[in-house]
Amino acid sequence: MFYLFCRSKLRGIKPYRFRIALQAVRVIRVICEICGLKSNLIRVTDGGNTVQALRCGLIVIMVIVIGSGCLLMGKNKEYHAFDSDALEKVAPGQTTAAEVSGIFGAPTQVVKMSNGNAYIYKRSLAKGTGLWLFVVSLGNYEKQYDRLVFFFDNNDILTHYGVSLNAGEASYGLPF
Questions:
Q1: Which of 20, 133, 139, 176 is deepest in the core (most CB within 10 A)?
Q2: What is the mean pLDDT of the chain?
Q3: DSSP string spanning 56-69?
Q4: Number of neighbours of residue 158 by Cβ within 10 angstroms
């Protein structure tokens, strides 16, 4: 539970110090509300010292600011690598476009060319790291692709194909 007890002495204290202490307490109250802490636990009462109230408020603000550093690592969960064994079932000059679609599913993109079609299959893997501090933010985001490109003639017979795999082995990069 978060509890801050600050006092302010009205007699003998310069008015600007009292205002500074009240501003610090208001800032702390707003931070507590943002964090979901009960704001009624912060109290300002008479009979104390405004310097202690200010010092108390500044310590809480410093703890929140220093503790607000955050490190983040993420990876998309929708990546499913292509089955490299399925490529052995594909033979240029023999496999049809319907068979390729049956093995690998619907293509990501179909390109119409003058001498046939190209079926492009693309799967992506995104990884990111980040470090957020109060003043400085650092981040690294990397996206790698597995691609299969199958080229078919006008009779929908496979002529050749190209492969780029192993995006799943991409490593995390440092954010600096």
A1: 20
A2: 71
A3: HHHHHHHHHHHTT-
A4: 21
